[in-house]
Amino acid sequence: MPNTTTTLRAVQNLRPRSRAGVAIAAGLCASVAVTGASLAAGDGGGESPKVFAPTAATQLADATGAQADAQRAAGEKAVDLEKSWVAPIEEDYALTATYGNSGDRWASSHSGQDFAVDVGTPVNAAHSGTVVKAGGNGAGDGPAYGNAIVIKHDDNTYTQYAHLSEVGVEVGEEVSTNDEIGLSGNSGNSSGPHLHFEIRTSADFGSAIDPVQFLGKQNVKL
Ligand SMILES: [Zn+2]
């Protein structure tokens, strides 16, 4: 059994610089206090546990502060996520046809960014908003898009998600950033499983802007 005074000093010397470390040290210190108490009870003498209590209390208070900080940070993270933009696919993907590219999938200039993923991969709302189009026939934009969704965002931009195997939302539904809205697929004019993703300035086909550039401005790196 180590000398408790030495152990306490060792703990104090370990007094950490990081918040996470504080919680660990507080835990250690609480153990020391218990050890002190049991020693005091066992030998009928030795160090009084009262010696340890103030330090333990201070460090536990620090730890409580750290916990409050962590909760505040988690809250801020949730708020940040709501305000922020994310990629429409969270799982691994390969970027294939890019915006403006007249690749093999489209006769004219490509209006979005393609994410090559297996059929059935969750597709998420890139930003919070309201679903304004959802369903087959490109949700009204034409059969080339297959099953599609269009979401209107508070900054008056729109996101479109196409070639889906499953549409999981309805027109009028409110979605939050990163909510799953459907599953990727190969519907419509698609030469292989992928998500076709557009940023639009209106709900309709023909108003697309470069989605990679747009997301880049929102600090989303694809
Ligand atoms: Zn595409």
Explain this structure:
The protein is 36% helix and 21% strand. It is built from five helices and eleven strands; from the N terminus they run H-H-H-E-E-E-E-H-E-E-E-E-E-E-E-H. Strands 1, 2, 4, 5, 6, 8, 10 and 11 form an eight-stranded antiparallel sheet that branches. Strands 3-9-7 form a three-stranded antiparallel sheet, with no helix packed on it. Helix 1 runs antiparallel to helix 2. The N terminus is likely disordered.
Number of self-contained structural domains: 2
Radius of gyration: 28 Å
Q: Stretches where pLDDT falls below 50 for ≥5 residues?
A: 1-51
Helix and strand content put the structural class at alpha+beta
Largest sheet, in brief, is: 8 strands, antiparallel
Bound molecules: zinc ion
What's the CATH topology name of the largest domain?
Glucose Permease (Domain IIA)
Which CATH architecture of the largest domain is right? Distorted Sandwich
GO molecular function: metalloendopeptidase activity
Domain M23ase beta-sheet core: 109-210
Signal peptide: 1-40
Protein name: Peptidase
Describe what is shown at a glance.
With 222 residues, the chain is α+β, with helices and mostly antiparallel strands. Helices cover 36% and strands 21% of the residues. Residues 1-51 have low confidence and may be disordered.
